[in-house]
Amino acid sequence: MQFVKVFDNHKKAIVKLVVNENNKISYKYFRGTFPDAVGLMEMNESRCFSIPFDEDDNFVWNWNDNIVYDLIYSDRIRKQLKKLHHLYALFVFST
Fold first, then answer.
1. Taking the model in full, what pTM does it have?
2. Angle at CA 28, nearest 5°, toward 66 and 68?
3. I want to staple 51 with a disulfide (CB 3.0 to 4.6 A). Which of 5, 40, 42, 91 is the partner?
């Protein structure tokens, strides 16, 4: 069984996703694990790649066990998360 490592920005931890026998990750499985994310990307020192979908909305890539992939969030989600972090900080520091 092959796994892909993905950094979860919310939990600040690495999560392993199972890659199926066709070297794909189901988008439904991905969204169930990371409900606020909209995609995956691979970054290295010189480039950044958005992982593409196939015709069935599965992630298809030449996965590398030595890479920790990053999540992509939509701007709307990113703005909501920023507001929540700001509100949390205000709450913590005001108590």
1. 0.74
2. 15
3. 40
